[in-house]
Amino acid sequence: MTFRGQTAPSIRVLFIYGSKPKKEFSATEGNWFGGILGGHVGIETDSNAILNFGPSGKFHLIARTRHRHSHFVLHSRDNFWNIFPHTEGPVKKLSIVIPVTVQQKRSIDSLQQLYLMQTPYDYALVGMRCAAAAYDVLGKSGVMPRYRKGKTVFKFRYPAKLRKRLVKTALQKGWKINREAGTVKRRWEKD
């Protein structure tokens, strides 16, 4: 599909799989927040600009409405894939290219500007984290069905939940999926 000689807009949802060091590499490979159920997710909105949500400051167990310790940031693709320190070798990754309408792309761009200026919620163990925040952007822009915040938090507590949902949708709709294996020094979560 083209618009005035240009290809249709698309976004890319990027996932780093959760992992933990294999025993024989525990001295050189670091532990990650969440371990096997950890990982990270971001939305590539423009070439080499990846929007992602994370903690900033003191970590809260339960989300707070005031004194939010969170932020949305833009990373380059290289910085995104290297977000976890103390890892030798590549991370296990998956990306899904999602075609969007011009209106959906405008909505994502507007949310990105708004969220970069002021985060709408706290980062917390019981609350919004990267997967729920990514789904929030996808839902509010009309790319995926929109849920209320509590349901979003419950359904997408960690990246694997969102990844499985998007892979299923991608297979149904013919969206492009790219996978890359990670270093053999870590035990990676499976799909």
Strand content: 25-35%
Which percent range fits the helix content?
25-40%
What is the spatial order of strands in the main beta sheet? 8-6-5-3-9-11
Unreliable spans: 1-5
Number of domains: 1
Task: Count every helix, treating DSSP H or I runs of 4 or more residues as helices.
Answer: 5
The residue-averaged pLDDT reads 89
Biggest sheet descriptor? 6 strands, antiparallel
Q: Whole-Å distance between the termini?
A: 31 Å
Overall, the morphology is globular
Please tally the β strands and state the result. 12
Topology as a string of helices (H) and strands (E): EEEEEEEEHEHEHHHEE
Query: What structural class do you assign from the helix and strand content?
Result: alpha+beta
What is the chains' assembly state?
A: single chain
Radius of gyration: 17 Å
